[in-house]
User: What shape does this take?
Amino acid sequence: AAHPSENKLIACAGDKLGYIGLWDVDAPVDDSRNGVHLFRVHSRPICCLEWATDDSMISASYDGTIRRLNVETGTFQEIFASYDDSNTYYAEELGFGIDEGYSFWHQHVSLDHRFAGSDPCLFLATSVGTVLHLDL
Assistant: This one.
C-alpha cells in the first residue's frame, strides 16, 4: 500500500510473521533507520493493507484481527476480531461466532469508501466464502 500523500512517498508492506513495515522513501540519508519503521502488529501473515485517511491505515491478518494504525502516535488499535462460539466471554463482540475453526481466516478486507469521513465501514471476505459488511 502506498500512502495517499502528494508530498511524500511512503511505501507499506506486511509479511508472513505479522510485521508491517513503513518506508519513507524520501527520508534523509543520515537517518539511522533509513526511513524504515517496523511494527509487530499481528501474529499471523498480513493479508491486506489500505490507507483509510492520510493519518490512518487499516491492516488485516490471517490471525482474525483487523487493526487501525494511528500515524501520529505510531500505535495500532484492534477494530475487529473474529471469534468462534466456544468462549462466551466474547459473546458481546461484533465478530463472535463467525470463526469456523482451523480453515477460517480473513481473506481480503477493503474499505467501503461510500462512507468517507465517518468511522470505517469494511467489506470482509473470508476463506470459507462468506462476505461481511462491517459498520464499525
